[in-house]
């Protein structure tokens, strides 16, 4: 037992007053024989025992009053962690480490972080006046704590202003940093007070425990006080969304996606009928229920069809539990908008599979495609109003007239897309004369690699040799998917000149044949794009139209030429990490805003990209371009680290063994303190004694 005001114990000597009064007040009466007194004596003997008990009770109550009051003023307590340590080890320079990781947001009505701040304040109160102290808020990237000092108001302000983060906290690193700060103080005693929920993600027990330099320069273990804000709980139940995958759902129609997310139960009890939903703003687009076994993992898939294209910002959510922050997974999804395409068929045929536009039409109108196709012959198609379309495809079409070529040029420069494939009806000279300003490269002549009737055609036909899979157009064709490209056989193809004289250096060759001749060339013209395919899109010059890669490639041509193809890789960034943004063309990134509206640091890179971060909170981050205008295509979502959702706790015995049994003092915060201080009960006892003493005197 310890006393807050030990000098008041001297007042307990007042309890001797009733005893002294009793001793000095004792009188021995003289004997005087008197006959009538015999009757009185017989009556007195009958009440003597009752009076003796009354006097004994009075002396006891008066002694209790005089003893309880000074003891109460001395403020006794059964246990005080920091002061108990002082008794055994003496005063010590103290560093209080407050865990500010995501797991500290766990709440059963009051968050663990709020309890942690109360514990940190109590640790400051427990310090003796001669003990210097410092406070460190432990995060994933902590700042070094200030040297120990005696400004308690400043330290309390640090605790009051501390906020929990959305990332992990490396308590082992924080302990080392705090130990280095304590070395700056000459006091021999050193103490580390750890205020944490003691989850396994916070400690690196494979690393050596913290040490400080002693007075002689030798390394010694500091005293470690563990304040467990979880109050000794065996576990903190929690379920979380640990992964999300969004993929097109072609079977459900255009602009349909399936959201496959993984739910993990970190608790010791199974979870039944857990609600999961896909939400955009306040709208719920899809909802389902999942069962997750104790300590297990479950996947759930929800399919959503979006009515229109554009960048969709939303989240997959679970019914919230005690740690609601990891029950939400944000996403930024580029949904292709509906496209209108005009297909100009330069070689119609009564037999469908021999028609020039047959395979292209089938590819662009397949399930899941957002393209609305209108097929016209050359005479009608080139007279159409191109402004009503997003994309024009010239398939083995004779060169348009000068007026029609001017219309096409205006259409592309205003943002339209143009796809050109060649064939027997394409005259290189006329095309160069009429469409030379649009084509990526001028046409030269037709080269025949093999005749179909040739018995050795299988070995003589040309094949694709180099494909730039790092370009968005060919990005999906890697691994096994590449076979559909390199396996195609080309009997004839159009050779191209080195570059277009009207726009030198603006074209790009994305695929070549084995002899190095271009197979696919693209270029920007004004606000629009043009793609040139140097063979046919039917089976006249090649068998590419019946290869598995033809359908997805034509759909990607349509998306790329109209600017609706997602040209960046999916941005995956976790809280605490940086992200690289790659704007298109000359576009700049001027600012990145976090979900709470604060700005995230942005730094331009020599290659034209921008590095933003580190991110500090989960959710969708907005990217602003020139003049502060939003660039929705560059928005990205920051997610939580699933490891921080595991709230398994390090056993007390393990921590004691790690830090050393001779240095650790455990504290469970308010759990080990009586609800009412002992001195309050002493005052109540004195009041009751005073009341009963007065009652006995009146009788």
TrEMBL record:
The record places domain Aerotolerance regulator N-terminal at: 1-76
**Keywords for this protein:** Membrane, Transmembrane, Transmembrane helix
Which is a Pfam family this sequence falls into? BatA
Ranges for domain VWFA: 94-197
What the entry lists under SUPFAM superfamilies is as follows: Class I glutamine amidotransferase-like (SSF52317)
Which segments cross the bilayer?
6-24, 56-74, 678-697
**CDD domains in the record, alphabetically?**
A4_beta-galactosidase_middle_domain (cd03143)
Domain of life (superkingdom) = Bacteria
Q: Please report the name of this protein according to its UniProt entry.
A: VWA domain-containing protein
Q: Which species is the source of this protein?
A: Corallococcus terminator
């Amino acid at each position: 037992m310890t006393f807050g005001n030990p000098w008041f114990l001297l007042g307990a000597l007042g309890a001797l007053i009733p005893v002294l009064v009793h001793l000095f007040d004792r009188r021995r009466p003289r004997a005087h024989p008197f006959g009538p007194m015999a009757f009185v004596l017989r009556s007195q003997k009958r009440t003597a025992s009752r009076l003796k008990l009354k006097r004994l009770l009075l002396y006891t109550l008066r002694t209790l009053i005089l003893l309880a009051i000074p003891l109460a003023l001395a403020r006794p307590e059964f246990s005080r962690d920091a002061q108990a340590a002082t008794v055994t080890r003496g005063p010590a320079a103290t560093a209080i480490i407050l865990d500010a990781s995501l797991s500290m947001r766990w709440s059963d009505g009051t968050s663990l972080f709020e309890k942690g701040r109360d514990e940190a304040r109590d640790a400051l109160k427990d310090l003796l006046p001669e003990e210097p102290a410092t406070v460190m808020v432990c995060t994933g990237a902590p700042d070094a704590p200030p040297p120990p000092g005696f400004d308690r108001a400043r330290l309390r302000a640090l605790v009051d202003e501390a906020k929990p983060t959305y990332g992990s906290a490396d308590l082992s690193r924080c302990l080392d940093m705090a130990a280095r700060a304590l070395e700056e103080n000459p006091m021999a005693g050193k103490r580390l007070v750890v205020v944490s929920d003691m989850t396994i993600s916070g400690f690196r027990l494979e690393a050596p425990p913290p040490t400080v330099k002693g007075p002689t320069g030798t390394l010694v273990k500091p005293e470690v006080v563990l304040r467990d804000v979880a109050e000794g709980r065996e576990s903190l139940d929690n379920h979380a969304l640990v992964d999300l995958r969004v993929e097109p759902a072609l079977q459900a129609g255009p602009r349909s996606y399936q959201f496959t997310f993984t739910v993990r139960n970190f608790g010791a009890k199974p979870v039944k009928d857990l609600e999961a939903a896909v939400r955009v703003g306040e709208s719920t687009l899809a909802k389902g229920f999942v069962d997750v076994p104790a300590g297990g993992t479950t996947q759930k898939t929800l399919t959503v069809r979006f009515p229109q294209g554009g960048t969709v910002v939303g989240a997959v959510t679970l019914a919230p539990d005690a740690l609601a922050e990891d029950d939400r997974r944000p996403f930024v999804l580029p949904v292709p908008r509906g496209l209108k395409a005009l297909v100009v068929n330069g070689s119609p045929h009564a037999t469908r599979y021999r028609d020039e536009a047959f395979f292209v039409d089938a590819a662009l109108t397949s399930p899941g495609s957002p393209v609305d196709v209108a097929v016209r012959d050359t005479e009608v198609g080139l007279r159409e109003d191109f402004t009503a379309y997003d994309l024009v495809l010239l398939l083995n079409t004779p060169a348009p007239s000068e007026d029609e070529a001017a219309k096409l040029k205006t259409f592309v420069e205003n943002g339209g897309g143009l796809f050109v494939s060649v064939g027997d009806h394409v005259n290189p000279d006329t095309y160069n004369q009429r469409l030379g300003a649009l084509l990526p490269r001028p046409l030269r002549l037709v080269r025949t690699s093999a005749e179909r009737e040739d018995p050795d055609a299988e070995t003589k036909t040309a094949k694709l040799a180099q494909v730039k899979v790092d370009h968005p157009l060919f990005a999906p064709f890697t691994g096994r998917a590449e076979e559909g490209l390199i396996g195609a056989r080309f009997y004839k193809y159009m050779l191209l000149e080195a570059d277009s004289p009207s726009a030198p250096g603006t074209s790009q060759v994305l695929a070549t044949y084995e002899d190095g001749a271009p197979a696919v060339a693209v270029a920007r013209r004004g606000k629009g794009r043009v793609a040139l395919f140097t063979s046919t899109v039917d089976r006249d010059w090649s068998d590419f139209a019946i290869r598995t890669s033809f359908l997805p490639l034509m759909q990607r041509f349509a998306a790329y030429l109209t600017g609706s193809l997602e040209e960046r890789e999916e941005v995956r960034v976790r809280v605490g990490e940086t992200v690289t943004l790659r704007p298109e063309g000359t576009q700049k990134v001027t600012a990145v805003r976090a979900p709470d509206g604060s700005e995230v640091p942005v730094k331009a890179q020599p290659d034209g990209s921008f590095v933003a971060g580190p991110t500090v909170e989960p959710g969708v981050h907005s990217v602003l371009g020139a003049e502060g205008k939003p660039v929705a295509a560059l928005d990205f979502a920051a997610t939580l680290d699933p490891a921080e959702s595991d709230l398994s706790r390090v056993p007390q015995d393990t921590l004691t063994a790690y830090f050393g049994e001779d240095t650790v003092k455990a504290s469970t915060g308010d759990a080990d303190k009586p609800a009412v201080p002992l001195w309050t009960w002493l005052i109540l006892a004195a009041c009751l004694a005073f009341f009963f003493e007065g009652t006995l005197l009146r009788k």
